[in-house]
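4.2 Preliminary Data

To establish feasibility before requesting continued support, the project team ran the inverse folding procedure on a target of 285 residues. The structure was first converted into the token representation described in Section 3, and no sequence information of any kind was made available to the design step. The complete token record follows.
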């Protein structure tokens, strides 16, 4: 699970090289962007037989539908498609990408599972004995979490089941500076050698959130048993501070769910870069 999260973040950061640099506009919010969404709820049965297992795909893709800056709109949508579906969909329109992705998901499901299911049918006298794992589902749902000034925060919620004890799910956040259409990273927000001090702040806030006084107490509860607590690039900017989001298995077992740690800006003031412009809009709307 942790590897999947890291892989997605690497893809998103790499994709930034494809985008345009856009100038400021006179609008309060850069680009005067408007957003719409495309929804899909597709169920497809093996062999097209409703008596057999099926896959279910749910998509809710938020995309930029209008803008005073056409290049900004197109570039953002390219970014969103890459983040949600992968690089091969970057050159498509949102409608085309959703259609192609849906067709591929259903096609791959049938191609991969129909031969195995047919063999199971032949080997087992009772169809009820055939494993329930043949029923798959996948959800990719995104929305604009924050859009103010030159800052846009985009959230993607992903979940999937392909057999096993339980499905997997994760959330990924894109913090975009609309001046450059580049992702905002921790190094853009903090100055110098900040990571050790920021790690201490994360530990202290997690202790406060759980009303404990020591790191050992957190460990006894299950934290940092699956990974170290360090500043993650999977964060989002908000009016109250920066929230660091750890998906299941990043630092805690599946049963504990994702972990969110919000650090107020005042708490990090001594670490923030004086050259940071990305925070201006969210801190001084």
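Position-by-position output of the design step:
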């Amino acid at each position: 699970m942790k590897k999947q999260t890291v892989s997605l973040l690497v893809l998103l950061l790499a994709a930034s090289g494809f985008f345009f640099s856009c100038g400021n506009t006179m609008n309060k919010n850069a680009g005067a962007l408007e957003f719409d969404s495309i929804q899909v709820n597709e169920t497809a049965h093996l062999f097209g037989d409703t008596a057999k297992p099926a896959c279910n795909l749910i998509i809710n893709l938020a995309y930029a539908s209008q803008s005073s800056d056409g290049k900004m709109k197109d570039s953002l949508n390219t970014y969103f498609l890459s983040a949600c579906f992968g690089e091969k969909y970057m050159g498509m329109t949102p409608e085309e990408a959703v259609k192609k992705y849906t067709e591929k998901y259903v096609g791959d499901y049938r191609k991969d599972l129909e031969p195995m299911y047919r063999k199971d049918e032949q080997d087992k006298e009772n169809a009820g004995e055939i494993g329930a794992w043949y029923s798959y589902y996948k959800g990719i749902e995104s929305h604009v979490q924050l859009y103010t000034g030159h800052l846009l925060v985009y959230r993607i919620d992903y979940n999937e089941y392909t057999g096993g004890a339980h499905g997997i799910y994760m959330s990924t956040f894109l913090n975009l500076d609309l001046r450059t259409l580049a992702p905002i990273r921790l190094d853009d927000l903090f100055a110098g050698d900040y990571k050790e001090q920021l790690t201490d702040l994360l530990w202290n806030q997690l202790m406060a959130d759980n009303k404990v006084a020591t790191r050992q107490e957190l460990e006894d509860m299950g934290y940092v048993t699956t990974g170290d607590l360090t500043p993650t690039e999977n964060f989002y900017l908000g009016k109250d501070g920066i929230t660091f989001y750890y998906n299941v298995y990043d630092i805690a077992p599946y049963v504990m769910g994702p972990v969110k740690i919000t650090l107020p800006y005042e708490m990090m003031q001594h670490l923030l870069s004086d050259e940071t412009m990305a925070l201006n809009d969210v801190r001084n709307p």
